[in-house]
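ok so I'm stuck.
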Amino acid sequence: MSHVTLGLIVGNRNFFPDSLCENGRTAVIKVMEQLGFKVVALSPEDTNLGTVETWEDSQKCAALFKEHRDEIDGILVTLPNFGDERGVANAIRLSGLRVPVLVHAFADDASKMDLAHRRDSFCGKVSVCNNLRQYGIPFSLTTKHTVAPEDPAFAEDLKWFAAVCRIVKTLRGARVGAIGTRPANFNTVRYSEKLLEASGISVEPIDLSEVFGRIDRLSDSDEAVQARLKDITGYVDTAGVPDVALLKMAKLAVVIDRWMKDHDLIGTTIQCWTSIEEFFGIAPCAVMSMMSNSLLPSACEVDVMGLLSMLALQAASERPSAIIDWNNNYGDDPNKLVAFHCSNFPKDMLESAKMAYQDIVGGTVGNENAYGTVQGRIKPGPFTFARLSTDDLTGTIRAYVGEGTFTDDQLTTFGGYGVAEIPGLQCLMKHICNNGFEHHVAITQSQVACALYEAFTKYLGWDVYYHKG
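replied:
not stuck anymore, here's the structure
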């Protein structure tokens, strides 16, 4: 798990024995640090036992969180006893942080219900959540209402919450690049930049003519070009691909690399159909595949919303993501389909990968101008799918998410492909069509739909359909 920093609030009510909070705080921090979290928390020198109860405690906690506001990705509220609901809510409000919040309560031991051991956290959690709702602070809950830190379920809750935090952090303030314009035949990928900007997401455009102009200024012997050429030939099997095509790919990669760095971009989407093939003589798919494989995702056909879907999936799973087409039925099985793209799939998603020419576009512009696709079959195993979309008619951002499995069913075709099984697929397709969603969907090879749903709905305020089959 990548580095995630959580602010920790240990709730307390002084009626209860000190030992509950003293030992509880230590136990929670131990689990967090074992999972690789960095913890920002009051110490016993700051407040009584390092807990939050009084107005003064809330102020101290808020000041600490403000000091680390650029580091903190989320807040964990833990209740070793009933806790003080006002102290918790005030600390979060005063901090000014707009990050995900997870509320955890310790479990009582039914054999230890005397005054020295009883926690009443079961009840206290209800009061804390009531106050957070009154304060307008969105929050998440552990799987079990109460759970001991030593219970493996608590560790799983923290991992899930970390994914939620990563999604929110990635999308809030995201800067992405749009290279070229939407292909004329792809009305389906229209989107609203203004709705994205209202959610803190910025799109930096660049015209293909400017990209081609910058490429023209690069010499074949340029050090950066030669380094990228080496990267490309070492990435996948390039046997049969002309050297001139590989050199063009290297130059395209250098220009994109520099442009992304200059503008602090975390992902791109490219006009790949069919301008680059016709007027530059390659398919950009391999360059895009390499970026996605290194967690700088790149989407096709200037599909900005598809790119943002990829970014969300990648943040949740910490694995590469890709864009696929909902492309074909698989025989007469109502729950199976053929997922396909030309393709720019990251190689880590594929059983084996080989560079070739783009079969479909090659028929129009000539195969010699369409080298650069990364072909192969998607590895069998579980996956999550997600699609974000702007609805200009209602002024909202909406989405759908769900999970399925790539199978090893027999299939022989070209490009990047796989057979996917999704329970209730026919109902999902009805939802997609009835609600005007696009033909593209993003995928990652991990099960993270629950984290996406939580992040999208609770913290980003978007309208989401969660397909559960």
